[in-house]
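Quick check before the chapter quiz. The format below is the same one you will see on the exam, so make sure you can read both the input and the output lines.
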Amino acid sequence: MRFARPAPLLAVAALSLALLSGCAATPAPGPVMPPAAGAVTPTSPVEVAPMVVSPFSELELEQQFEQGRSLLLHEKYKEAAEIFDRLTRLAPDGETAPPSLYNGALAREGLAEREAAVERYKKLLERFPDHPTTRGAYLRLLRLYSYLERWSDLAAVADRALALKDLTVLEAIEAHGAKGLGLVEQDQVDDAARQVGLARDLIEEHRLGESGPPPIELAEVSFALGEVRKKRSERIVFDPVPPSFAEVLEQRCQGLLDAQGAYTEAMRSYDAHWSAMAGYRVGQLYQQLHRDVMRIPPSKADTLRKKQLFEGAMRLRYRVLLEKGQKMMDGTVRLSARTGEDSAWVHRAEEAKRDIELALDDEKKALSKLPFTEDELQAALDLLKKQSP
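Here is the expected output.
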């Protein structure tokens, strides 16, 4: 509905004078008449439903929409976001409302205002569930919830995405991978493994990612697979020392290498965010394995010298785990500096890098306090390997 255009100024002035002259003399009050029979006496104000009145025609709204769309395509996100938000206020039920919510969310993503983008995508899904733009909204929400680490929301939206009709292969892969990631981060490892398996079956069936960098949809699947393998391998611990320690240690190390292989596959997509996540996780694998093996007590050491020898041999043998972890954390931090990636995973890598550097320094100090040189410890370690490989 359009507002009526204002009357000319002289006409408004003449009307005002006429009203004023009519009010100059106060008429005598007339008799108060009782209400006619059957008349309804109002006792309370009448309420009507709220109504939004737009001062713009549909054509003008469409023109504003096209202006916002042009700004969005030219990556002028702030100006575009303002136009799309204004359109959703001016015509919340009009034809431009659903695409304005969607494009407004895209603009907020461009501004790195991810929570604001989530809010607009959710409003689109709630108010216009059958609009064509909702399909893209589900997939955009999957990536936002993954970035924001809202794991239960990620799994729930993945279910809704998987319920959509006629999903493309890549859309189905992404939805299964997202659900797997959402579940594994909530420690539902077996259910997560099933979802990842469904995604990998589609990847193998369609031979995706075999040549060149894989699509970004595959990166999430690979990362989720790494998370499943990481959690399963880290269930293997060494305190108390298992009877077949060498065999159990080999299982743990094989689990680490399998998880590392999946994370490395995620890095092949050349996406800075997934690469930062994967790089941090690989470094964490080595850092955690070092913590676990260093908790092994020297059960057969019955003298101080033997205990010191055991400690020195352990520190020397497993220091390499810290060095590998440090290398991965350092690479992740350098990646962020090169690409501008600034997610929570990068900050975790920075903190872990400092922790590993401190741990390596502690290792050197502890070794220097022992009554053995590193050569002597290495000789003892070689002897120990021969006795119990």
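If your answer matched, good. The chain has 15 helices and no strands.
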